[in-house]
Structures are given as C-alpha cells and as structure tokens.
Amino acid sequence: MKKILGLLILASAMVACNGSNSSSETDGHSGATAVSYIHYPQEKHLANVRQLTWGGDNAEAYFSFDGTMLTFQSNNSAWGLECDHIFAFDWNSDSATLTKPTRISSGLGRTTCAYFLPGDTTILYASTFAGDSACPPVPDRSEGYVWPVYNTFDIYVSNLKGEVIDTLVEGPGYDAEATVSPKGDKIVFTSDRSGDLELYTCDIDGSNVQQITSGLGYDGGAFFSPDGKKLIFRSSRPKTEAEIEHYTSLLKQGLVEPMEMELYTCNVDGTELTKITDLGRANWAPFFHPSGEKVIFSSNHSSDKVYKFNLFMLDLNTNEVEQITYDGVFDAFPMFSPDGKKLVFASNRNNGGDHSTNLFIADWVE
C-alpha cells in the first residue's frame, strides 16, 4: 500500500488521457487532457492489452494463487464509495459486465493492500474501521505532497462474501501493506510499532512476528521473490540532519513524503540488505519477474515531469534498466500472474479525460 495510491491520485489529478490513435502531452496543470492509447507501439513486452475497469481510482490489483481472480482497491463514486475499498473478481469474465465487482471489505473505514491467501477462499487487507467506521480525513497538502500513515490500520482476513473472519495483525499504530509469499507460508507487512516504518514478517496465521528492517526511513510495499526466499521493497533513507528532521517530524504527524525512494532487496530474515537502484526521484511498486532475476517497477526517474510514471524492468545480474510502458501520465502497480503469462497494472491511459486510473491486463512477451 502500500500508501501508493496517493501518487496515483496525484498523477490522475494533474493530467488526463483521452482514447485515440494519436498521442500528445500537456503540462498537466492547465486542465487540458492528453491523448492516449490503450497500448502504445513501443510496448513490445505487452500484447492483447485489455481494460478491466472504468471510472474512479482503481489500483493494486493482485492475482489469486491459481491466477483466475484479481483483488484490488477502488474509490469509484459510481459504486457509492467515499474512499478506498476492496473488491475481487474473475478477470477473465466479460469486462463490459464489470459494473460493480464483489466487495470484499466491510464497507466501513478506509482499506488498502488486499492479497489472496493460500486456497483463494480468503483475502487479507488493512482497514481503519476498528478506529472509526467513517473514512479518515485526507492530509492537508498545502505544505507539500504527503501520504497519510493512519494509526488505526490493522490487517484483517475476509472470505469472498465480504465477511471479516479474523484479525491477523493488530495493535496500536500503523499495520498495513501486507503481501503473501508464493510459498504460502509467510506474510510481510509494514508497521510503525518500533517508532519508525519498518518491514515485518509473520507466519501465515499472524503468529511469529519478526522485524526485518531497522534503518531510519520508510520501508514499504514489499513483495516476496518467486521462491519465497527474498523480499523486494521501496525505501526512503534520509541522510542529512535536515532530511532526518523532515522525515521524523512528518512521521510524528502520521505522514510520509514519498518523493525520493529507491528499491532494496534482502533475505526474508533481513540479511543481505542490498540497494538495487540509484536512479533518483520515486522508484516504487516493485515486483519480481517470474525468473527471479529481474524486477518490474514504477518510476518517474527518466521524466522531466514529477507526475509522469512508467514501468521499467531492472536486470539484477547486469543492472540494465529497460522501459516497459509509455503512457504520458501514469503506469504503476505491476504484478505478474503466477504462471508468468500475464501482467496486470494500473494506468491513466484511455480514460476519456476524466482523470480516472484503471486496471489493465496484458499478455507478457519476453
């Protein structure tokens, strides 16, 4: 969560796209729209791109273990939503009938970071509903762009009917951004229980909680490698006194500023911590390629516009970075299907100029 939906909303608010067979960009501040493809000619690794949602901000779509379903979060007002809630659906159904998929979250509070558990009959997600049934207030961004770190986020388990059946991780402070190992044995999540935003793992039933990272800075958005032995995540690492003061003062207010983040890997026990990018700006939403030797992620490092994010692939052996998507506004939240044949992601492309961020699925071409 990953609290990354904030960047998505920022991007979609700055500039929009309009479906067409031509392409142009605007400065993103005049209210003008940019023309967009559903599939750009340069996107050679994608084929048969298909749009799955229309309207609102839809993001963090993650496959079930068997690859037949997706869970995601949305704030689509047409579905009666005032803030993010969790949904699930069969992605291979006729997308034109996806007027409103099955809601998995309770309908109370704000939610984030849904992920299927082994067996595909239950889904975990984080929610603020135990603290307040209403949507929590969004941060005042008059002094800069920040993400909220809601201290009422805990991690719950729901069945596919939307019934909460377990509280997996709870306690005072922020517990969210949970994902599940492909091996089905462990969960990784972000928590501020130490006083900083660190990664933690636990067993699949929520027991045996272990702190994984300890460096000052925001560690989040973690995923497991295909063999379940490593983690990849995004992190800010303030260094100077001014940076440290800025980070810690914001955190005391329940805020983080996500403008500078790089990607790291480590073993699931926290050893062999390795910084794998040094690109500058915001690099985030990483996910391992099925080979385990490459990583796909979202970044604005190559753009002269802070809101413009595309997907890139990093070869962990050669450090070569390849651009994967080419939308003029925003591409993020990539995930490969368990068999490696599909890629799902969120994008501002083809939204008709209404600022919405939608889900897309494509065949992956090596």
From TrEMBL:
Pfam family name, one: PD40
Keywords: Signal
Transmembrane regions listed in the UniProt entry: none
Coiled-coil annotated spans: none
InterPro entries: 6-blade_b-propeller_TolB-like (IPR011042), WD40 (IPR011659)
Signal peptide start-end: 1-18
Family: Belongs to the TolB family.
Protein name in UniProt: Uncharacterized protein
Source lineage: Bacteria, Pseudomonadati, Bacteroidota, Flavobacteriia, Flavobacteriales
